[in-house]
Structures are given as structure tokens and as C-alpha cells.
Amino acid sequence: MKNLTNEKIEKRIDDLLAKMSLEEKVGQLHSINYGGEFTDKIKNWLKKGGAGAMLLVDNALAGEAEAVRVSREKINEMRRFALENSPSKIPLLTCRDVIHGMHTTYPIPLAQASAFNPEMVRECYRATGEEAKAYGVDVSFAPMLDVSRDPRWGRCIEGPGEDPYVGEVMAKAIVDGFQDGDLSKDTSLGACAKHFVGYGASEGGRDYNRTEISEYTLRNVYLRAFRSAAESGIASAMSSFNEISGVPATANRHTMQEILKDEFGFEGFVIADWLAIYQLIRQGVAEDIAEAAALAKNAGLDMDMADDAFGENLVALVNGGKVSEDIINDAVRRVLRVKFALGYFDKDSCEQKIEYDMDAHRALARRMAGECMVLLKNENATLPLSKDTPVYVCGPYAFDKRIINGSWAADGDLSYSVSVADGMSAKSDKVCFSNDRRELSVQDEILRFAPRNGKQTVVVVLGESDKVTGENHSVESIEISAGQVDLVKRLKRMGNTVVGVVLAGRPLALTEAEPYLDAILWGWHSGCETGNAVADIIYGDVNPSGKLAMTLPATTGQIPLYYNVTMSGRTSDAYYGGRFVNGDDEKIYGYNNMYDDMSACPLYHFGYGLSYTTFEYGAPVVDTAELSLDQINSGKAFTVKVKVKNTGNREGKETVMCFIRDKVASMMRPIRELCAFEKVTLGTGEEREVEFTLGFNQLSFYNAENKRVVEPGKIEIYTGADCYAEGNVNVKVV
Ligand code: GLC
């Protein structure tokens, strides 16, 4: 556990708390938002020490509005005002949604998860931390750790995808990036684990909808990334809008207090999401805002957001005996911990002058984008193209510089954005496109420019706008648009070689277009350097190595569709296309893909991604076939080794994955569970032995008693390229 605090800080907090009035304590639990003007309302709150944090956010849908612009000077002015007017001279905390970049935008988090390169993710968030701190941000409302199995939900783009282990890895990488191991460094800022908890299970993929989550699934799927964030010493967390099986997350003592704080040892503060306390009235668990404030406070929420619920009600609630001062003191301690950890009682946070190297940040953004992109199809080695090949670039997003940054990129400096057309033109003088460089209708595109001789290679840039992703943007259908399918079909029917580049935030269903594409590069919304990174891969300067962190269904109707599914008692493993049906099943039930009218197999499964080279795997080997439960519980682990060889004709990176299956346990366990991965770079012909160490953390799960346990029995281990990996070895726990 990386502690957020230490004895010295705790002592200083004790001394400070002893001096503070109840009013001032409550002030620390109240946040105000800056909407672009240093208003009298803000000043009045600050005058009496009545606000502990200021959100540099100006509306409920910060992800899509142009961010409120505020200068560092203005932030410093407000900080000074707060300090001068604070009876106990407590500094103000500024917060902002810095989700995947500041002026330099990096790929959306779901894309970064698909790089399977946590060290590079950490670097991106370290660089972002420099830019955010220079701007004057003390806490960023990231990482978003909501595991999601439903790509209709626009916010899946902000998270780690469908796998809890990837969620754990992303949590640590982003916390380490932002907090840099020591919050007191000038360029470190606090991170915020959100949205606590289960928001990704929104029914129907409809944002803000209810979630029905059993304790078993809550613990084994949705909580794991937050446990990792707590263990990484994260400074804050944010309660979510959703209810969890009838109890709103923002009033949920079981999750916020009993699990996050008591069980996971989280030492920071929990802030509500925007108006989430007020929304308890709408959710039907409070009569009015005062009752909502009492409910949330007693459930373990530490700070309000945008509804003044705590700022206006907690003093009266304490005086009225509805909330104890002990609970207030614990919450204030948590907020002060972050402020002490940031060093704000020992240095003037207004005097920090932080410089950073923008060119280096953009170069990193380009590398990260190249690591995230996923090569889904490459018939007859269509790619990479020669720079001497005449290429016609077209499609609705060929020239776009905005959507490539994705949602929650309002701070991005678009002057840095590179479109696909620009990226490709920068590499080859054989690139042509519609002269007026604007989005043409499908008909125009066809009639006006696409060649009729069928000898040309066409790169068609498809996907979705960032405006249908992120908060408050869910879709009923994830099918790629009919116009785009029509364009692809027509281009192919002319006899062209057609390369599809898909710039999307969420998984889209490409089934209709797929047969007409000779190659498909899944480019995500990969930030300001998307165009250069696409060109790097198209022309072979970068060998693609991304793998899907979220399943690409064949159709919307298949959703929810995810790899870490438990085995049905009657039908086979539809996600796995019958791979695990054995003779007996065949006789009794036959292979049943669970629909009469459609396969239940994804178009592209979890972990899938091609390279310009090929890799071969040996069989996994374990250093012991048997371990006792006592050995595992006392920390003993075993190793799994697997050889992987680059059998192609160029260097490449390969993410080697290790899955387990606990086939007989006290609760049903998934057919495959990712428990470790390593991305290796192999030269032509090079072979490497990759080693995984598996122990309690990798084998344990939460049982029916909500205890994290390893149970006796056979554990199947699978190693390989993706969730269909077949290299198998067993270890027995006795
Ligand atoms: C929004 C989002 C949350 C964000 C907060 C502040 O509604 O749900 O992710 O951090 O409000 O902008």
C-alpha cells in the first residue's frame, strides 16, 4: 500500500482540527465551481472559509462543453483570496477533468488500455500531470475505472474496457503517472478513482440508468480496479450517479465506508459526482436536500459537488444531532491529508512555475497512439503500403482534427491535431484526395474522385464522431453507419484495394462493411497525433501491436458480450464459438450458439490484434504442479513460463497473455480470466521465454461470504495471444 499519509502529517492534522470551528470544518467538505468568473457568490463562500475545493468546471456535462478557460494568474488570485480569508489558513484545492491529456491530447483511456503497455500509459499521465499542474490543477477527476460490457454506453471510452485485471493495471499506471509516487513534487497532482461504483453496468447501456449488480459481481468485476487504486495510494474517489440494486452509490455506506474505506484502506476523500447528493431526492431516498446531505454524509461521502448540499446543511445537521462531529472530523482529515501531501501547507502553491517540453509530449502522444491501434484485418498483406503506391484517401473523417481527440478533450489545443489525410501526405507524395478537402457525400465521393480503373488503393476513414461518445451519449445501435457501409461497398465494387481506418471511441459493429475491406486498422480516437500514427502504421514505419481491451460484437443485438463469461449449464460457450464443446455436450445439447438467427460469436474477441509479423507460442510450463492452500495463503507463488517466437520477417511487439480457469469452485468462475500479461519486442526469428508469477492475487476471488479466497482444486492456465489462447497447463491447489 502506498500510503497517502504518515505520522507527521496526521499529527499536524490533529493540531489543525483542534483549532477549527465546526463551520470551518464543514467548509472543507464543500466544493464550489468556477464558471469563468470570480463571482461574489464564490467570494462569499471563500470569505468565511466555507469552501475547501474549487472545480474548474462549469457545467454538468463538462466532457462536451468547451472547457471553462481560466488563466493561472486567475487561479492564483482565487487561491490567495481563499488563503487570506481562511481562519486557519487552509489552502484551496482546484479540481478539473483531465481525462486523457491537457493541451496535448493522448488516446482515449479505452485505447490506452488496448496498448497493454502500462509503462507507456504511466508516462502519458506523467506528461499530462506536468501540463495540468502548470495550468493550476491540483486534483484531476481521473482515472475513470468503470469496467463496461456494453459499448452502447458512451462512457466506455473513458474506462479500461471489459476486464477487471486490465482495470487494476490501468488504475495503478494512471495513479503512478499523476501522483508520481510523491504528491509534494511540484508536477504531481492528485488522482481520483471514479465513478464509485458499478456505473459501467448501466442497464441497456443507457447513461445514468440503474444498475443491478450482485455482491458477487460487484466484488469480482467492478470493485477490483478501485481496490488497485486504493492500494496505489490514490488521493480521492468520486461517488457515481447510479443506484446499485436499489441503493444509490452516493448514499451507499456498504460500498463507500465498509468496502472502499474500511476494507480497501482508502485514505483519501470521496467527492460526489455533479449534483449527485441533490439527485438522491429524485432517486427517492430523501425528502429534501438536508436529508440527502445527512444520508450521504453518514454513508461515507466526504465532499459535495455543485449542489452546496454539505456547505449549506452540515452545520445544522451536526447541531441537530443528525450527523456526528466524529464523522465530520474523519472527512475533514481526509481532505486535509491530500492538502498536506501536496505540500500546500509548506510552500506557496501560487508560486509554482512549471515548464514542460511540448514537442516531447507530442512525440509521446504519437508513440502511444501507435501502440493503441489494432490491426483487425490484413488480407494478402495489403498493409503496409509502399510510399510509392498511389493512394486515394477519403471518407467522413479523413480530414478531421476534432473527433480524433475524442470526448473529454476540451482542453486540447487543436492546432496540434493531425488528421489522417495530413499524416499520410506528410509521408508520401502519392496521396490524393478530394481537392476541396471537405467531407463529401458518398455519391460525390464516388462520382467525383474515386478512380474507375480499379487499380488504385483507397484508404477510407470511417468511424464515429466524438460527440456520440462520452457522458450522456449512449446509442441504441453500434452498427457503423449505412452511408459508410455504402461508400465502402461502392469503392470495393470498382475493383479497388480498400483499406478501412476506423476512428471510433466505443466498439462498433463492422459486420456489414468487413467483407468489402481488404484491411482494417482500428484507430480509436487516439488524440492529437492520430493522423501521424495512422500513417506510421499504414506505411509500415510502425508495426501495429494493439489488442482489443473490449470485445467488438458482430451486432448490437449480441450485447452484452464479453469474454470472461461463466459456462452455461446447457449450452456451450457461445462467445468461444464452440471451442469447448466436448463429445458428451454434443450428444446431449449439441453446439448451441444461443441464438437461432445469429451467431453469438463476436466479430473480434477480447485480446485480438494482428501484427505485420507472426508469432508462435510454445506450451506453457509450470515450476510446480501442486501447491498447498497454506503455501498460497502465506504468499508462496508458482511460475508459468511460455516461449514465444517471432516467425515473420520484421520486428514486432506481442502482448503475451495468461488466463486462468478455476473449473470447479464454490461459485461459478469465468471460462477465462486474464491474470497477467507482458508486452515483448522480438526481432525476426527471435524467441523469448516469458515468465509469469501466479499466487494469491492472481488466483483469488470473492466467494459467497464476500471473502477473498483461493480454494483447493485444479486451476487451468492458458497462455497465448488472446482469450482464445489454447496453450494449457494445470496446477493443483491442495
Ligand atoms: C460529470 C461526470 C464526472 C465528472 C464530473 C465533473 O457529470 O460524471 O465524470 O468528473 O461531472 O465534471
Index terms:
single chain, 734 residues, alpha/beta, TIM Barrel, Rossmann fold, six-stranded mixed beta sheet, five-stranded mixed beta sheet, 26 strands, globular, binds alpha-D-glucopyranose
Plain-language structure description:
With 734 residues, the chain is α/β, with parallel strands linked by helices. The protein folds into four domains: 7-348, Glycoside hydrolase, family 3, N-terminal domain (TIM Barrel); 358-538, Glycoside hydrolase family 3 C-terminal domain (Rossmann fold, 3-Layer(aba) Sandwich); 562-601, no CATH class; 615-733, Immunoglobulins (Immunoglobulin-like, Sandwich), CATH 2.60.40. The protein is built from 22 helices and 26 strands. α7 runs parallel beside α9 and α15 packs across α19 (530-538). The structure holds alpha-D-glucopyranose. The site of alpha-D-glucopyranose has 9 residues, from loops. Alpha-D-glucopyranose is lined by residues 57, 60, 62, 97, 141, 194, 273-274, 471.
